[in-house]
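Take one protein record:
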Amino acid sequence: MKPSKRLEPIELLPYMGKWLVLAFLVAVLAGSASALFLFALEWATRTRESTRCLILALPLAGFIVAWFYLRFGRSVEAGNNLLIDEIHDPKKVVPLRMAPLVLVATVVSHLFGASVGREGTAVQMGGALADQLTRLFRLRHEDRQIILMAGISAGFASVFGTPLAGAIFGLEVLAIGRLRYDAILACLVSAVIADQVGLFWGVHHTHYAIASVPGFSAWGFCAMLIAGALFGLTGKLFAEATHALGGLFKSRIAYAPLRPLLGGFVIVAVVWAIGTDRYIGLGVPVIVEAFQKPLPWYDFIAKLAFTVASLGAGFKGGEVTPLFYIGATLGNALAPLLHLPFSLLAGVGFVAVFAGAANTPIASTLMAMELFGAEVGGYAAIACVVSYLFSGHSGIYRSQRIGQSKNRHAPEGIKLGDIPAYRNALVKQQASDTFSR
């Protein structure tokens, strides 16, 4: 290839121009979709809270949504994992139907009382809408990978109001221990603009306040190590329990719509037995309380159980906001034990459990700084990194690849969902080798 005689900055201009235009289009699409989704979610939550008997229809709602996915949405049912797979191994454009299907399905889940989140919905809408530009502009595989990542970043940033965390999330979520810097411009621009698009449409994000951040000390450092380990183990438990229950439902109930029907009956029965809706829906009011006063120590366990039951049974929605709830209430419970302020531990737990479950410590640290202020960054960074390590090679996204293994060897490029089978095969091989000797 003949070397160019033009200066490198001059050659960079067409590249920047292309990605500024594409990232802007992605941001407008994803930010507008997230705004519509958040308004619909707010309506669903208000309606459910004012009409408690709606939860009685949760099993039927789950059955209908699962039937629609079985009839019309088999190609997009993998959700976030489909987007990650398409980025690693581009095959075909993500069907546009992913966006309306997941939007309606998630709103229905919240309207009738499932304990699910919203991140998965925003990310899927952002990715699906962004990928339509692939066909429109006839993008190459390499460019398609980047535009999908930009869609993920835009969806995440606009639904939470955290543009920097959203930008890094789109780079970090694909593979453990490795970032895709070739997409950094597109992800950053799409995340920042998508957040502004949401604000333009009138979106208001919940404000979480840490009352005071104590000066850093030796005990503060040690406390973050302890808390980070517990947050990571909790994230690991959440991910593995969700996958295990989902696998159990699939192995025992062949007809998909029956899974949320059965799971919905169980959730309804438990909610009416305990007499509270504290652990269903997003649970944002409880998250806010965790920053303000002591809460029952078992709140995080109850929310974890309801969310695992909802997602495992097949209700549509994200995992991240429930993880925020679990982390904030667990941090609240740990605060008196670690002699640190409730609001500080709630804020750190808010992001650190997510860091462990999603294997995204950098994005989670940036999220803490965007939501709670830069002064919490040191505490959050330590807890998020330790949580990331203690969660091991598990996570909520089974299509995440191993880019660089953590403290235990795992082959590069393997999916998280394939690691158990790989290790079982390794154990059998070692046993066979031992027997043959």
Notes: The two ends are 55 Å apart (CA to CA). The beta strands are 175-176, 401-402.
